[in-house]
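Chain A, query sequence.
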Amino acid sequence: MLSPHGRGHALVLMQAPQDGSAQTNLVLHDNEKLARYLVSDFVSHFGAWKGLPGLQSLSYRALDSVAASGDPASSYSETVKAGDTTVRLSWSGLGKPFCFALPPEKSATGKHSMPSLFVPCQTATIEVNGKALSGKPIPREMAGHAFSTAMLAFSETWIKA
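Chain A, predicted structure.
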């Protein structure tokens, strides 16, 4: 909503995270400056992404469309299209939302306060051009809440300290 590079959407999809040359590691965006900023200043600091070779070979592609559907209280999905690539992200079995705020020293970047609203989910899927990708959520803990990596982070806000 508000950044040094304006508004926009970005989806970072790493189908080969350990491959530094794979063309299957994509950033689909409608604002390339914002997308590159999000990868360099945020995503590359997140625990699951930090140090992955695939971050060095991301292919940036302009989005044609972004659409959300469903009800964030039960099941929800987002579909993005960029040229001949369609990615659908789906979450179901949504749990009770919870809010928290991390101080800079506990945030992934170490430089930002992070107030957020998280919605835990039982399952999540990613489809690329109609084909479901392999993988499954793993356990995770955040702000004293046990859940999994299958979660929605609504209203996640990063405020530079």
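The chain has a mean pLDDT of 92. The CA atoms of residues 51 and 73 lie 34 Å apart.
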